[in-house]
């Protein structure tokens, strides 16, 4: 059954920029209350504060927390606060949009730095494994209930390779695997878990990828729409997919790329 999102709650992990921020804005316009977790310096904190004010202008609550979303202590500290803020309603939508990882090659050329075990573990922990830990704790706390939707942001990089992208590619592949397993285990509770595979999207995290300008130009040329994916495209997909209590669409990698991979 199609339902209204107004009055429900959304948790966005990675809420201060890129897709996470766009999703928070879109859902706030739909009347969804926002819980945002981000990990930023002063400039990022100021940007999050401005975003929160804009969201509250739509008549919703918007609470942003500057904390390391990959830390167990952050979950321990924030979950009781989330329970208090949601007032027993639970969290309808969870968005995992954490993009923090190393972009070093596995085997650097002479004189160049190579990936370390610490960097590999950090990248997978932040960009993949933290999805599992947040979902576990939210479910155990009773904040995820029948009809809830969990989304993880993935990319074509989970199945493709490019220079210096190895650790992130591994994290995306692991993330998609986690989505399938969580979907299996949460299906009896009526909770859907999916990965959204955005096309090449101009975000701060993409700009850090070596050769991102060439990657963007090629994606634009190949995309049937002759443009790149926008964060707002992904935000609209989250809004659309969340308007049902059904958990029948679950365990998928859903392309939100304008047909980018078709060509």
Output mean pLDDT.
Answer: 94
Low-confidence stretches: none
Note the total helix count. 8
Give the overall form. Answer: globular
Oligomer class? single chain
- How is the biggest beta sheet arranged? 7 strands, parallel
Organism: Streptomyces hygroscopicus
Keywords: Oxidoreductase
Pfam families: adh_short_C2 (PF13561)
Family: Belongs to the short-chain dehydrogenases/reductases (SDR) family.
Walk me through the topology.
Layout: E1 9-13, H1 18-29, E2 33-38, H2 42-56, E3 62-66, H3 72-86, E4 93-96, H4 117-140, E5 149-155, H5 166-186, E6 192-198, H6 204-207, H7 212-222, H8 231-241, E7 253-256
Parallel strand pairs: 1-2, 1-4, 2-3, 4-5, 5-6, 6-7
Helix pairs in contact: 1-2, 1-8, 4-5
């Amino acid at each position: 059954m199609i339902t209204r999102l107004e009055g429900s709650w959304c948790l966005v992990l990675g809420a201060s920029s890129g897709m996470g921020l766009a999703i928070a804005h879109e859902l706030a316009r739909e009347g969804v209350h926002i819980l945002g977790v981000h990990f930023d310096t002063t400039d990022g904190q100021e940007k999050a504060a401005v975003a929160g004010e804009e969201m509250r202008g739509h008549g919703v609550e918007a609470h942003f927390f500057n904390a390391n979303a990959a830390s167990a202590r952050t979950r321990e500290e924030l979950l009781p606060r989330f329970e208090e803020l949601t007032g027993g309603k639970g969290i309808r939508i969870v968005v995992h949009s954490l993009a923090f990882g190393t972009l070093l090659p596995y085997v650097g050329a002479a004189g160049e730095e190579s990936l370390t075990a610490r960097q590999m573990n950090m990248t997978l922990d932040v960009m993949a494994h933290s999805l599992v830990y947040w979902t576990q704790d939210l479910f155990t706390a009773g904040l995820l209930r029948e009809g809830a939707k969990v989304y993880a942001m993935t990319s074509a990089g989970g199945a493709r390779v490019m220079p210096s992208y190895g650790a992130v590619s591994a994290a995306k592949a692991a993330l998609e695997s986690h989505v399938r397993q969580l979907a299996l285990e949460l299906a009896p509770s009526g909770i859907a878990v999916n990965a959204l595979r955005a096309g090449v999207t101009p975000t701060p995290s993409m700009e850090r990828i070596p050769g991102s300008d060439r990657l963007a130009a090629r994606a634009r040329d190949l995309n049937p729409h002759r443009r790149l994916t926008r964060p707002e495209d992904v935000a609209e997909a989250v809004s659309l997919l969340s308007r049902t209590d059904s958990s029948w669409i679950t365990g998928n990698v859903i392309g939100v790329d304008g047909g980018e991979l078709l060509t």
